[in-house]
Amino acid sequence: MNNTLLSLTIAILFGIGTFLILRRDIVRVIIGLGVLSHAVNLLIVSTGVFSGTKVPIITDDGGHGAAEATGSIFTDSLSQGILAPIIEAGHHVDYVDPLVQALVLTAIVISLATTAFILILAYRIHEEYGTTDIRELRRLWG
Amino acid sequence: MDSFTAITIAVFLPFVLAGILPAVAKLLKDKIGWYASATALLSLLMVAQVAPEIIHGETIQGTIEWLPSMGINLSFYADGLSIMFGFIVSGIGVIIMSYSNGYMSTKEDLPRYYQQLLFFMGSMLGMVFSANTIQLFIFWELTSITSFMLIGYWRNRPMSVYGATKSLLITASGGLFMLAGFLVLHAITGTFDIPTILHNESIREALQNHHLFIYALILIFIGAASKSAQGPFYIWLPNAMEAPTPVSAFLHSATMVKAGIYLIARIHPMFSGTEAWFILVSGVGIFTMLLAGFLAFRQTDIKGILAYSTISQLAYLMTMYGYTTHEEPGIGVAAATFHLLNHATFKACLFLVAGIVAHETATRDITKMGGLRKEMPITFIVATIGALSMAGIPPLNGFLSKEMFYEASVEMGHLLGGPYTILIPALAVLGGVFTFAYSIKLIDGIFLGKRPTKGLPEHIHDPSMVMLAPAIFLAGLIILFGLVPSIPVHNFIEPTVSGIILEEAHLHVKLWHGFTTSLMMTIATFILGILIYTQYDRIAEWQNRFNAMFPWISVNYYYDGAVNNAKDVTFKFSSRMQPGPVKNYVIAVLLLTLAMFAIPAMMLGTNLIPQNLNFDVPLYEALIFLFMIVAALGAALLPRYLPAIIALSGLGYLVALLFIYLQAPDLALTQVLVETLSTIIFLLALVKIPQKFKEHIPTTTLARDLIISVAVSVMIFILLINATQGIVAPFESLSYYFIEKSLALAGGHNIVNVIIVDFRGYDTLGEISVLCLAALGVYNLIHSRGEDE
């Protein structure tokens, strides 16, 4: 997906996220992780392999169905099972890449889980030690 | 019941009945020991059922498939060798568990004790009947682990813990060497199946001519030596004496320590007949025999003397199994096998006596004892029979097998020729002399002489029959085997020897066989033994002085050094690797990543920014980009938490919006839901965290962090524009497969959904597990507050 402004935006988000995770305040670090995970998700989605522009949902409108559209692209007989198909470079596919979307979908949900966990961790740290400053915490732990 | 079933039951019955033992213990209370004895008896009966077939010269083999594709199965093989071990293990098991009823106080944790004993017995039986090297390894390590737990039975005593750890470290890591040896063996022979190698002459010949032969031999021998406390590995056995005495009698004299001997006997047909075998097995054997026999002198603990004597006696067995020539590979096999059986009887008997004496006098220190023959007459007689058998006095069974040992030594020396004709028999006699001396010391020190005036309880007497009967039974066996050697020879020794030398064996063992060389050697042993015994205390004293003078001439010195230093070294290592705040690691990781990017980038030169940049985006998309940057800056710069979090969630919703433009409706939907949820969690958590701390960033830190951040930004930007513009060539993608097969295989139109729930369903399962774990973690964190708050 050739979109320089999108790449620039993602790069800037990375920079901001990096700056945040280098802070001393735990809450800032968590916010930084949030920014970083958005940036990573966008990065993965934007690097999909196909030049197609359609949403990866197969429609039943005749000749544009995926099964027919891509039916002849396999060049070896082993591809019926688990092996990845071999295909010549630059083959046109109507859709955007569905695989990166599936990966990112999982990543989004998992980042929710980790965010929730570290937030509660920060909350408990604050409750036990009365501070969210990492350096102060190290001093308290000795 | 066919024989294979009987063996399978004999192996697994102890495991099953040990599993339900805690429940039975609630019913039987203090009598639980008899349940364990009954279990051992059942295993013994199962083994006995198979015995007639084996005595007739047959072997039994059977397989239950486990990993057939890798040639690893649950398979059992019974020949004379395994049956003899089966009898020793289950038979001594019955004796020990009955004896424990008298020895172990009812205040002890009896269910744990008997459960572990049964687990051990099952593992040991499983090992001797294994037809498969991998299975043998598994049972082998199981015996190491159960031994570890039994040595450490008294968990609060530091010496128990020390002894248990030492035995586990040495025997279990030795087992790993053995496993490596088995893998080399597999590489040579192409099979894990022991009978296949044993019964196929061409495989054995190929093995002996293979260039990996010596490595397989050395690796497997290390396993055997560590288990049987040979060579430098002997140091764990004396410390294992911290176990309850019945455990020492069972594991550390009669059975487990013989596992190494079993292994040597088992691989004897594969490796013997070579010079390497003789040098390695007999060499280490003779060395250990003399060293351990000599070191027994300075022991004052009865069990310590017995421990060193066990090491020395095991070394006899090693030496005898090691006697080999190419023409006659099994010179000492018959002698070794007979002595193995005899040692199991007299050493177990002596350990039981040691247990009785310690139980009655409340000490194990031989220097505090003496003159107990009047107070414990039966114990005295039993102990004398055991010790005299060990010393090799006729007509007891130890005499017979020691004669055979001398005979084999003479033959081996004769076959080697040269100085060895004298040297090997002489070393054998020297080993016998040491054995004679410490055997006499046991009797003299405990039962003869004068009773010390203090240090012993006033009334000492023979124990109850529960403890006495097993010892008397073993003493009876010692006499029986000595007077009528044809019983053990015909039933155990001949089938075993046939199994090892792989041809029909006929042995003639008689109590009186004329004035032979070996009889002369025995007489010489007695005379020298008595002479050495007169100097016993002086030798012990000299050993103590030597030890005090040169503490570094001892394997223990290096073991303790290594183990203690390991703690310090790892501590130093980790404190060097992890010196300070997490931030430093983050910076280190970032800098490394940047370097990994920058070095190839510089080598590529100028073409980092492609020419055909595409700034052609619709206005609304450009606006979304702008808002995203503003929101991210807000999250970073807004000083208070609440506005920063609102900015962060704004960024999340903008990302969702962008997903729609990127043709990813599922992502947009998920992102909206997740962002909502995570905003709520953020707010819930931050309500509880008041913002007290405000970081003041020094200029240098700010500059450093900004430089790193900008560098990361630039790196990502360059990588991305190259990746998305096809300068990095698109590689073959899995995605075609999913587009092609989504409808055909999974019947789903939405390809992303199909990937998630169908093609990559296990990933999603993993994702759900992560969510569950996070939820559990959150729950526990919230509930982990101290009681007082």
Question: Can you characterise this structure?
Answer:
- Chain A has helices at 4-21, 26-46, 66-69, 98-129, 134-141.
- Chain A folds into two domains: 1-48 and 97-142, Helix Hairpins (Orthogonal Bundle), CATH 1.10.287.3510; 53-96, no CATH class.
- The longest helix of chain A is centred in the last third of the chain and has 32 residues, at 98-129.
- Chain A has five helices and no strands.
- Chain A starts with a helix and ends with a helix.
- Chain B starts with a helix and ends in a 7-residue tail after the last helix.
- Chain B has three domains: 3-534, no CATH class; 535-578; 732-789, no CATH class.
- At the A-B interface, α1, α2, α4 and α5 of A face α25, α26, α27, α28 and α29 of B.
Which properties best describe this structure?
heterodimer, A: 142 residues, mainly alpha, Helix Hairpins, 2 domains, 5 helices, 58% helix, elongated, B: 789 residues, two-stranded antiparallel ribbon, 32 helices, 2 strands, 73% helix, NUOK/Mnh_C1-like (chain A), transmembrane (chain A), membrane (chain A), cell membrane (chain A), CPA3_antiporter_subunitC (chain A)
Into how many domains do the coordinates of chain A divide?
A: 2
Q: Spans of chain A of 5+ residues with little confidence (pLDDT < 50)?
A: 62-88
Shape of chain A: elongated
Radius of gyration of chain B: 36 Å
- Helix vs. strand class of chain B: mainly alpha
